[in-house]
Automatic annotation (TrEMBL):
This is Histidine kinase/HSP90-like ATPase domain-containing protein. It comes from Cyclostephanos tholiformis. InterPro entries: HATPase_C_sf (IPR036890), HATPase_dom (IPR003594), Heat_shock_protein_90_CS (IPR019805), HSP90_C (IPR037196), Hsp90_fam (IPR001404), Hsp90_N (IPR020575), Ribosomal_Su5_D2-typ_SF (IPR020568). SUPFAM superfamilies: ATPase domain of HSP90 chaperone/DNA topoisomerase II/histidine kinase, HSP90 C-terminal domain, Ribosomal protein S5 domain 2-like. Residues 786-801 have a biased composition (Acidic residues). Residues 91-250 form the Histidine kinase/HSP90-like ATPase domain. Residues 285-320, 780-819 are annotated as: Disordered. GO terms for molecular function: ATP binding. Belongs to the heat shock protein 90 family. ATP binds at residues 98, 102, 144, 149, 157, 164-165, 240, 443. It comes from the Eukaryota. Keywords: ATP-binding, Chaperone, Nucleotide-binding, Signal. HAMAP family: HSP90.
Length: 819
């Protein structure tokens, strides 16, 4: 496409007038006329006319509106415009949000004034916003029926705009590392974002305070603007019409699909209807004259009889294309958060859930809260808790979670790209609408805003309160209670196969419990509240859906119990059968099972609940206060002295494979077990670290601490091993005793959940044990079997075939066959 400087006006006119050969007008070269068909000639004529019109349009100098006066921009406004025009900022879509937001404000003002003065609405009673696009003239128009502006207001608001706002904008922009034009709305000068996409902007406005409709116009890059009476007269009645003459690279804003997408994204919940004019081409029957003279039936004057016309088949009507214009309202979704929650039905809340969730998180919301926060910061919000895990959480991809909350200012979308919720509540979806936030502030500034921090704090508190309400809700009643069967004695018969009813919170917690545990790790301020929402399996819960809260555990602790006993591991089955549970089962002490990988990190960061410390039973230091402390100390002293030779020998034998050998106070059936040190990693944590998906194969292996070998002084294996140790420390210990000692460590290591450190040596030891028990003298392999040779015999048929030699087809009588 061609653009001419004003100095090229004469040359362009010459081209249009035909002084330049018509075969080279503009950028279009035409073939010789003699070589072209009629259709090609017609197409070339259309192209030539279009090219000439374009050249003429480009060459025509700008003419301000008739009767308008010229005004100069203030220096600061001019500087700001220069920044906007030359900015490298790529998201130009914000201009439409700004225009619709300004239009909505103008409608709010006239609506407020009309409450006491209804006559202000006049004949223009509908408060609405309309958006028109014109592909032929490359214009985009936003029209509202708001309060409008007088000529003085247009000069003041659009040319010498409030000085403080512009000054602050320039200052903030100069201090920023990059020119972020998205900040312009923060300073009340969002109107100038129109120059991101327009070469020229025309504003027509009609106010009730002035009988004349005025027009404001400015060309992109010029230092002045023009204001005067609108030559078209009063076309608006009341309100403002902004027409953007789009730049060449802004053609996408002439697409109805693009415009609909932008309006729906930014202005989906604007109070007033926002409609987009749709241009459609339809085919309709071509209109014909109702009566033609040639169609009049004729009758010969000399004929006395009537001529009957033959019935003629109706021809299909000739069709023609007609362009139609109709407005389609885009923002049809209601902003239900602005309504009184007492009048909103559950069905309406669930319908709005579909709008904010977009199908990610289940067809229905599990629960929601609708509230208005009042105080220093006022805002309205609806928060939803989903019934199903969002897809990203199912995959464990927290960094892929889409932010669930949208932030609005007076129902205009500000952003959905920054976090209003911490990561552990990233599944919460909903909306927040605040009148106290600046419109169109950039993400970085908004994230650091004190107002946003206050809003975020209140939202987190409300979300946790919502989940607490779900957890403490009573068990819902059955929808259709069944009549109980009565036996012969009049007693109710309870069906044995009737499934136990599950509390809705347990069903929800099984999906989202990991997120709440993450919250206990990340959010120390709300840790106590979050811990009350956790549910665990314990040694006293048998059913699949039987869970216990930490508070329930504390309430039924033994009188002598001071700590909360927890057992981290890989599966419920392995934990229940572990030797670590012997002493607890014997004393009827409840133990909480930690089977999620995050439980280890939870245990490492959260040390206690309600004044009771967590005690990992796979680590040293587990004590019971159910017996006399004095007796326990004396017994421990006697055991330590009795087994000192064995513990000393075993530590020397095992070397660095164990950190120390001690006499256990808690073992029941097991002869020994390997536990972790109090401040070291448990066996389960070692397993998790080994399984890290991002561990590099060439990275040095992490140092896994040696465990503590605990011996059961009452077990026969340990007593026999003590008797097998020579009293003389310098005497040679038999190999069989050494093997028994090593096998005892292997058993204790596996019972403690740790892997065998040297599988090859373990295999050698077990080989020697099998050799001894089976009485095998040598492990040399027996000679290979030499099988005898066998004669080749033909394969026997699978069935005997009848002899067909004497069979004659002629002897076959078909009549004898039963067909």
């Amino acid at each position: 496409m061609i653009r001419f400087h004003k100095l090229a006006l004469g040359a362009a006119l010459v081209a249009v007038l035909g002084l330049i050969p018509p075969s080279h007008i503009g950028n279009v070269a035409f073939a010789a006329t003699s070589d072209m068909t009629d259709a090609e000639k017609k197409a070339e004529e259309v192209a030539a006319t279009a090219a000439a019109q374009e050249i003429l349009s480009a060459a025509t100098p700008y003419a301000p509106p008739e009767g308008s006066s010229s005004f100069a921009y203030e220096a600061e406004v001019s500087k700001m415009l220069d920044i906007v025009i030359n900015s490298l900022y790529t998201n130009k879509d914000i201009f439409l949000r700004e225009l619709i937001s300004n239009a909505s404000d103008a409608l709010d003002k006239i609506r407020f004034l009309s409450v006491t003065k209804p006559e202000l609405l006049g004949e223009t009673k509908e408060l609405e916003i309309k958006v028109d696009y014109d592909p032929d003239n490359k214009t985009l128009t936003v029209r509202d029926t708001g309060i409008g502006m007088t000529m003085d207001e247009m000069v003041k608001n659009l040319g010498t705009v409030a000085r403080s706002g512009t000054t602050n904008f320039i200052k903030a922009l100069s201090e920023s590392e990059k020119n972020n034009v998205n900040m312009i709305g923060m300073f009340g000068v969002g109107f100038y974002s129109t120059f991101l996409v327009a070469d020229r902007v025309t504003v027509a406005s009609k106010s009730n305070e002035d009988d004349t409709q005025h027009v404001w116009e400015s060309v992109n890059g010029e230092s002045n603007f023009h204001v005067g009476p609108d030559p078209r007269g009063n076309t608006l009645g009341r309100g403002t019409e902004i027409t953007l003459h789009l730049k060449e690279d802004a053609d996408q804003y002439l697409s109805p699909y693009k415009l609909k997408e932008l309006i729906r994204h930014y202005s989906e919940f604007v109070t007033h209807p926002v409609s987009l004019r749709q241009i459609k081409t339809v085919k309709v029957p071509k209109e014909e004259d109702e009566f033609k003279e040639d169609d009049e039936p004729k009758k010969d004057e000399g004929d006395d009889f009537e001529v009957t016309e033959e019935k003629v088949e109706e021809k299909e009507p000739e069709m023609e294309e007609v362009t139609t214009y109709e407005y389609e309202q885009i923002n049809t979704d209601p902003a239900i958060w602005a309504r009184d929650k007492d009048v909103i039905t559950d069905e309406e809340y669930q319908e709005f859930w579909q709008v904010v969730s977009k199908g990610d998180g289940g067809q229905k919301a599990e629960d929601w809260t609708h509230f208005t926060a009042e105080g220093n910061i006022n805002f309205k919000s609806i928060l939803y808790v989903p019934s199903e895990l969002p897809y990203a959480l199912q995959q464990g991809q927290l960094d892929q979670m889409v932010n669930g909350l949208r932030l609005y200012v007076r129902k205009v979308l500000i952003s959905d790209e920054f976090d209003l919720m911490p990561r552990y509540l990233s599944f919460v979806k909903g909306v927040v609408d605040s009148d106290d936030l600046p419109l169109n502030v950039n993400r970085e500034t908004l994230q650091e805003s004190k107002i946003v921090k206050i809003i975020k704090k209140k939202l987190v508190r409300k979300a946790i309160e919502l989940i607490r309400k779900m957890a403490t809700a009573p068990m819902p009643e059955e929808d259709e209670p069944t009549e109980a069967e009565i036996d012969a004695e009049g007693n109710s018969i309870i069906p044995e196969d009737k499934p136990k009813k599950i509390h809705p919170y347990i069903s929800w917690y099984k999906k989202f419990g990991l997120s709440l545990k993450m919250g206990c790790i990340d959010d120390s301020a709300n840790r106590d509240k979050l811990q009350k929402l956790l549910r665990f399996k314990t040694s006293k819960t048998d059913g699949e859906n039987d869970y216990v809260s930490l508070q329930e555990y504390v309430d039924r602790m033994k009188d002598w119990q001071k700590e909360i006993y927890v057992f981290p591991g890989e599966s419920m089955k392995a934990l229940k059968e572990s030797s670590f549970m012997d002493a607890f089962i014997e004393r009827d002490v409840e133990v909480i099972y930690f089977t999620d990988a995050i439980d280890e990190y939870y245990l490492g960061n959260v040390r206690e609940f309600s004044g009771h410390k967590f005690r990992d039973i796979t680590k040293e230091g587990v004590k019971f206060s159910d017996e006399d402390e004095n007796v326990a100390k004396r017994r421990a002293k006697v055991y330590a002295e009795k087994f000192k030779p064995l513990t000393k020998y075993l530590k020397k034998l095992y070397g660095s494979d164990v950190s120390r050998v001690s006499i256990s106070k808690r073992l029941g059936r097991a002869p020994a077990i390997v536990s972790a040190s109090e401040w070291g990693n448990s066996a389960n944590m070692d397993r998790i670290m080994r399984a890290q998906a991002w561990a590099h194969k060439d990275a040095p292996e992490p140092h896994f601490s040696s465990g503590i070998m605990e011996l059961n002084p009452r077990h026969p294996f340990v007593i026999k091993l003590l008797e097998s140790i020579p009293e003389d420390e310098e005497a040679e210990v038999p190999e069989s005793v050494k093997d028994a000692a090593w096998i005892l460590l292997d058993m204790a290591t596996m019972s403690g959940g740790f892997p065998i450190r040297d599988p090859k040596k373990y295999a050698s030891r077990m080989t020697r044990v099998l050799k001894s028990n089976l009485g095998v003298e040598s492990l040399d392999l027996a000679a290979e079997i030499d099988p005898p040779e066998e004669d080749d015999e033909p394969d026997e048929p699978e069935f005997d075939m009848p002899d067909m030699k004497e069979f004659n087809m002629g002897d076959l009588d078909m009549e004898d066959l039963d067909m």
